[in-house]
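Friendly challenge for the regulars: who can give me the structure tokens for this chain first? No prize, just bragging rights.
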Amino acid sequence: MKKIHIILVFAASMLFARTTWAYNFVSGGIYYNITSNTAPYTVEVTSGAKSYSGYIAIPATVTYNGATYLVTSIGYDAFFNCRNLTFVTIPNSVTSIGDDAFSGCSGLTTVTIPNSVTSIGDDAFSGCSRLTTVNIGNSVTSIGIYAFASDTNLTQVNYNADSCITMGSSSFPVFSGCSKLSIVNIGNNVRHIPAYAFSGCSGLTKTNYTGTIEQWCRIDFGRANANPISFSHNLYINNQLITDLIIPNTIDTIKSYAFCGDMSITSVTIGNSVTSIGDYAFYDCSSLKNVTIGRSVTSIGINAFYGCSGLTTVTIGNSVTSIGDYAFASDTNLTQVNYNADSCILVGTGVFSGCSNIKTLNIGNNVKIIPTNIFRNFQKLDMLNIGNSVVSIGDSTFYGCSGLAQVNFNADSCITMGSSSFRGCSKLSIVNIGNNVRHIPAYAFSGCSKLTSITIPNSVTSIGDYAFASDTNLTQVNYNADS
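First reply, four minutes later:
Bragging rights claimed.
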């Protein structure tokens, strides 16, 4: 779509050559519009009768008719299509760069945007085909759509914006068509990386942050829909490739998207001071093999470890109280889950969806609640040991675990089992129900067609509708319930 956009812009420039120019005066070969005739006097750089070429140094102030004007902006179309412009110096007085300001300046090779600039307009530097490096200053708060689009030789962006909040969009990304962009250097004062900041930069291989892991974890990452940043990269901290990531005890939160798409990280150790792991924090980290989640983590965000296809083992600590939708979904090599959460009560949809190779599930002895749906459709799970502290099992928790053959239910005081907890476990042949279970709920073991015998202990006081319905091979029931 961008190619069409560029063609239309440049076609328009050829078809409708400028014959009139809106400028108030010329000084030093640069055309100006007056934007304020009262103190403080201000002007913007604009286009003029002659095309700019060679080296242009824009001054911070300019004098006209006895008044001194501050140069505060580079206006719309100011240097549009000036193909012979090779270098430009932008003073610290400039706060905005307008739409199409340098669009089509194919002779530019380097642009330094000073710290005074707060906004960069749509297509501001689009089609600058020789531009190799861009430096974005720390005061920028917004960058327009296609701002650097089709800069086909752009290889490096030095991004120092402290708090940029808008940067293009998913449909009109800032760096669209920058096929050679491979390095993004992010300054240590950056606090926010906007949604879609580097979306579509398929050649991006290195993101280098000049701060520390602590600072990186504190950055707010842009969020919009599913995958706003689209980093497909290796993360460097001060030019050191991060493979074994250790989150120190000085960090309490891993922000959303913090390591999204990182291709270099193979192991993560999360310090015991961390209490939350944000949405998409390790999304699509395909090289990640080992994760140790600290004992203080209480929440794991939506898609936090989605698509970590190298991950084989996950240990969920005892402080976790909530796990977001699809937190570990599509971790196709995940074979073992060690679940030690004492009282996890909020579990999203499809937490382990697509984890078709999970064979081992260890539920720790301090676990009290096994939430709804959390282990649904673990089709290769063959044996389940439920620890002695479990007090409740949620609805459909083990629904569709078609390979599950044996359940050793050792809970001393489990009092509730949700509807359809083991429904559809077609290979389940052995169930040992603990002596303190009081209620067997509706559909709990419905459809367990391999189950041949069941012993109902004397602690059971109620059995729900269809609890053992369609267990077609059930031939023996030992019923010891007192009441």
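The two ends are 72 Å apart (CA to CA). Confidence is low (pLDDT under 50) at residues 1-19, 224-229. Your move, everyone else.
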